Structure formats: structure tokens, C-alpha cells
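So, can you check what follows?
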Amino acid sequence: MELIDKDALVAEIDNLENTYKKCPTRNSYEEGLKVGRLIGYEDALYKINTLEVKEVDLNKELSLEDYKSFFKKHPDLSDDWGFDEAWMFAKYFYELGLKAQKGE
């Protein structure tokens, strides 16, 4: 899965919409194309703004039961680390993903 910064996407569509609004048209055909494109931008923004943005609390999402169930599902994998080490590993990559999402 790839994550896109919602605010950056909305700003880009807003920019396209504002730029396209200023474009002159020479005839009714071009006017119809312009109106259609502007409706498309509005529809895209509406859909984007209805998407759920979920905040995740890793402390609530990862439990000892999750850890144990993982190794029940994957018995061929070694459980050499233990829960604390696996939790720290998960937390590291979770925070790394958040930083990447924010462009840091």
C-alpha cells in the first residue's frame, strides 16, 4: 500500500481547479469541456473528503495475544525475540511509516 498526503492531494486538485477556471474558451464546445473538467475536480474533492482518515494507537493495536496468535499462524517462524523486542521492532517501523507519510 502506498500512502498519499491527503492535504497535499487536495491542494493540488484545488490548484488545478483554480488554474482551469481562468482558462478562456473560444466556443461552446470548449466551454462544455471546461465545465465538465471543473465538475470532475469538484467530484474528486468531494470523494477525497469523504474518505476516513484513521489515527492508530500502536499501544492499543498490538497485544501479547496478537503476538502469540502470529506464531500460531506461522509455526515455521522462530520466536527467538520475545514480545518486548517484537513490540519495539513494530513500533520503530510504525513510527518510520508515519514520518514517511509526513515527508520527513
